[in-house]
Design brief:
Blueprint: H1 2-23, H2 28-55, H3 67-102, E1 107-111, E2 117-120, H4 122-128, H5 140-143, H6 147-155, E3 162-165, E4 180-188, E5 192-199, H7 201-237, H8 242-274, E6 283-285, H9 286-304, E7 310-315, E8 319-322, H10 325-342, E9 348-355, E10 361-367, H11 389-394, H12 401-411, E11 415-421, E12 425-432, E13 437-439
Parallel strand pairs: 7-9
Antiparallel strand pairs: 1-2, 1-5, 3-4, 4-5, 6-8, 8-13, 9-10, 10-12, 11-12
Helix pairs in contact: 1-2, 7-8, 8-12, 9-10, 10-12
Length: 445
């Protein structure tokens, strides 16, 4: 303000003195008035120019000049620059937030007061089979026609979720089981609503597997328990001679051994699922693993059939493999004992180890048993899955061997391959990655 007063006085005095010098002192007051008018006109022009710029988009604000209008323009430009920076930062944060929601494995849909789509991420669009751009401002109830979902959305009672089948294109068709969605609505900002969707297919399948597992375990244990209870009741209530008593006690021992084997296999599965993956720093010689397999295999063969089986063990390349020795031994023994159990007496069971051209190692068990039909092969690693339940129980199988092999293979990065032809036999192979196989080192003397 002092600067404006000073410039105003200076303009009046200068023009007043100029007029007095030219026309005489009696015209000095006229020059002073003319100076004041010119200063006011110039000041009004500068104010008008600033207002005109502000009325447009404020992008053409003049650089800082003298006077109050120059300082005002500079301060406005500074405020606008700060506001633009804040707006840009807010926009960046919004985009980061939307990108985070977009990357979420769960679906998110925002609805306005009328139930129209304001925004949705790609997950929700895929689950509901809608287009995230084309279907904006469309009523969601018109796009998702599931009666349970439509009734839930219209009820305004969102204390619980609703479970529906996904209608997204390509999702249910790519899976053998339909995709199940859990949808939960959360009201916000008045009558706006946010839908959160979650794929619970795996959860429901896991729950079904748990129920089946409990039912299978109960069934597997109930049978030997019933047999044991019957034998105990017989021994308690009937007078038996020594030979009958010995036979009953032998059968009881078989059933108790069967339950013990089942419990041990269940504990093995539980330990495999709950422990950390094996490290790659511990190495064991293949020859040592196959020697133990051979001892177990020949012993089992002699117990099952009097004439035994023709067993052969071949190591094409002296190798070492990294991993957990007990787990590797369990997987290899399971494949061998399965082949022996299901191969008739006198049949051939061949065990081989070789290095593949790409550096991987393959442990394979080939038998001349009855073979396996193609429809059973994909399910062989399921727990308690048996092709012939009576045959499995006769040979002492629990139905968990291949499930254990599959878990051990996964923990070691290996692949379980199954080939079989009905009437000709089967071949089970574990293929280990190259980083877990190396040439056997010479033992120090």
């Amino acid at each position: 303000m002092p600067f404006r007063i000073a410039t105003f006085l200076i303009a009046s005095i200068v023009l007043g003195l100029g007029a007095a010098a030219i026309f005489g002192w009696k015209f000095g007051w006229l020059g002073a008035w003319l100076g004041a008018v010119l200063w006011l006109a110039l000041d009004a022009w500068r104010a008008e120019r600033l207002l005109r710029v502000l009325r447009n988009n404020a992008s053409g604000l003049p650089t800082r000049g003298a006077g109050v209008w120059g300082e005002l323009a500079e301060r406005i430009r500074k405020l606008l620059r700060e506001r633009e920076q804040q707006t840009r930062q807010a926009e960046e944060r919004l985009q980061e937030f939307l990108a985070a929601i977009q990357a979420s494995p769960n679906g998110v849909i925002l609805l306005d007061e009328q139930g129209r789509i304001e925004w949705c991420n790609q997950t929700a669009a895929a689950q509901f089979g809608i287009n995230a751009e084309r279907d904006l401002l469309q009523h969601l109830a018109n796009l998702v026609r599931d009666p349970a979902f439509v009734a839930y959305l219209a009820s305004w009672n969102y204390s619980r979720d609703v479970v529906i089948d996904a209608s997204g294109h390509g999702q249910a068709q790519q899976r053998s089981h339909p995709v199940r969605l859990s949808v939960q609505v959360h009201p916000y900002a008045g009558n706006r609503r946010m839908l959160l969707t979650r794929d619970i297919t795996a959860v429901e399948q896991a729950e079904a597997m748990r129920r089946d597992f409990v039912a299978n375990v109960s069934h597997e244990i109930r049978t030997p328990l019933t047999v044991l209870a019957g034998f105990v009741e017989t021994l308690q209530n009937l007078p038996l001679d020594a030979e009958e008593r010995t036979r009953y006690l032998s059968l009881m021992s078989q059933q108790s051994h069967r339950m013990e084997t089942l419990v041990n296999d269940l504990l093995t599965l539980s330990r495999l699922e709950g422990s950390a993956p094996p490290s790659g720093s511990q190495w064991i010689r293949i020859r040592a693993l196959l020697a133990q397999c051979e001892d177990e295999g020949r012993g089992l063969s002699g117990r099952l059939v009097p004439q035994g089986h023709r067993l052969s063990f071949t190591i094409e390349a002296e190798s070492e493999i990294s991993g957990a020795p007990t787990e590797l031994q369990s997987a290899m023994s399971n494949l061998l004992t399965n082949a022996i159990r299901y191969t008739p007496g006198g049949g051939e069971v061949a065990v081989t180890w070789r290095r593949l051209p790409d550096g991987r190692g393959e442990y394979a068990v080939r038998d001349t048993g009855p073979g396996i039909a193609a429809e059973h092969i994909p399910r062989l690693t399921e727990r308690f899955y048996r092709i012939d339940r009576s045959r499995s129980r006769e040979t002492g199988g629990t139905g968990l061997g291949l499930a254990i092999v599959k878990h051990i293979a996964q923990r070691h990065g290996a692949e379980l391959r199954i080939e079989s032809t009905v009437g000709k036999g089967s071949r089970f192979a574990l293929v280990f990655p190259a980083n877990r196989v190396r040439e056997a080192r010479l033992l120090a003397k």
